[in-house]
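Render this sequence as a predicted structure.
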Amino acid sequence: MKKVRNLVIALAVLIVLGVVYFLAKQGLFEEKEEAEEAVSVTDMSADDIQEISFKLGEDTVKFTKTEDTWKLESDSNFPVDDEKLGTVLDAVADLEAIRELIDAEDASEYGLDNPINTITVKDTDGEEFSLNIGDSASTGDIYVNSTAKEGTVYTVSSSFSSQFDKKVYDFAQSTDFPDILTDNIEKVTVENAGDTYVLYQEERTVEETAEEDTADADAESDDQEDTEDSDAADTEMVWMIQKNSDTPADADSTKVGEMKSQIAGLTYVDYINYDCTDMSQYGLSEPSAKITVIYKDTEGEEQTAVLYLGGTDENGNSYSYVEGTTEVHTIASEVATKFHEMTVDNYKAVEETEESGTETE
């Protein structure tokens, strides 16, 4: 019986060793070990790149560096943002592979005979190489190859390809809308459709209740000095809405707060033109709306920002520019709509009667 048990154990060990040998022959263990070793497609310093070109959409753009300043070859005045371009330079200079396919001679198998994009780089020594981006692998990664190492195909993260899913203006320096704090906004004027609407603050005496009046009267009888001090009534700032020269009305505080938040958080969707000399092409020579914001800056100084809205792009976003600049941007359609739809009816405060509790305007 003991001999049989030993025989069974020996047979089990033999089977395990056979499985291990089979897996080793298939290269599975070696592949795991190789996967732990990083393979570089490129290994250089981004600072050594002097020229780089790549496709953006259907167009090929080229950036060159002269005395540490990057220029767009097709427009030397284009305001290149070194930090934004630097993200691409870093990705190209230190590209790490997920897998390395040696002796991959048929580039068509990987879509590299007709690449989606070709990135060409020249360094400080005048050495030049190109990276080609091909098809996506079944894993979701993408195939690339390099002229620096013929016959080798790599898979790299799809995030590398996304570096080039941009427009040329994604690499431009931009002037942001003024940094305005919500609580520092003092007045907003919106001109559209031939009318002018103004949101502004008015100082008003705080109305006291009958009980408060009685309490104040008792306090006054006890202390004559306090009576003199109480002559200065409490006041508060109330937001008003006025159309043209009509009688102003109390504004709804919630609606005013939403408008102030929209202005303080205003951002652009797309950068369209860094030096526009013909605003008519964007409907800005005859703006659809003009928004004037008076506010205090962080130093407490009064400032004025004027935003113009024009026509819309294919996505419905509005072309815009800020007075004093030549930059054209788009702002989201829902943001522009709130400016265009400013009316007294939309902003007038709703009052509640004491007797019925019903809301009236």
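Summary. The chain has two domains: 39-171, 182-205+234-360. The two ends are 101 Å apart (CA to CA).
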